[in-house]
Amino acid sequence: MSEQSTDVTYAVVVNDEEQYSIWAVGREVPAGWHTTGVQGTREECLEHIGQVWTDMRPKSLRIAMGES
Prior knowledge:
The protein is an alpha+beta fold. It has helices at about 40-50, 60-65, and strands at about 10-15, 20-25, 35-40. The N and C termini lie far apart (about 40 Å).
C-alpha cells in the first residue's frame, strides 16, 4: 500500500522550531518531532497546517528578531 493512499491516516507533527509536517500514523515519529494530536487524511492534515502555520520562519529566527 502506498503512503499516498487515501486509506492512510496521518498525524500532524511539529518540531522545536515550530515547523509542521505530516507523518503516517503507526510509523515512529522522527527524533525532534512530536505529534500535535491532529489526525486525518492527508488533505485534512495539510488543511490544518495551513490554518495554524501562518509564519513559516523558524522559532529561533523569530526570537532573534525580537518576536515570539
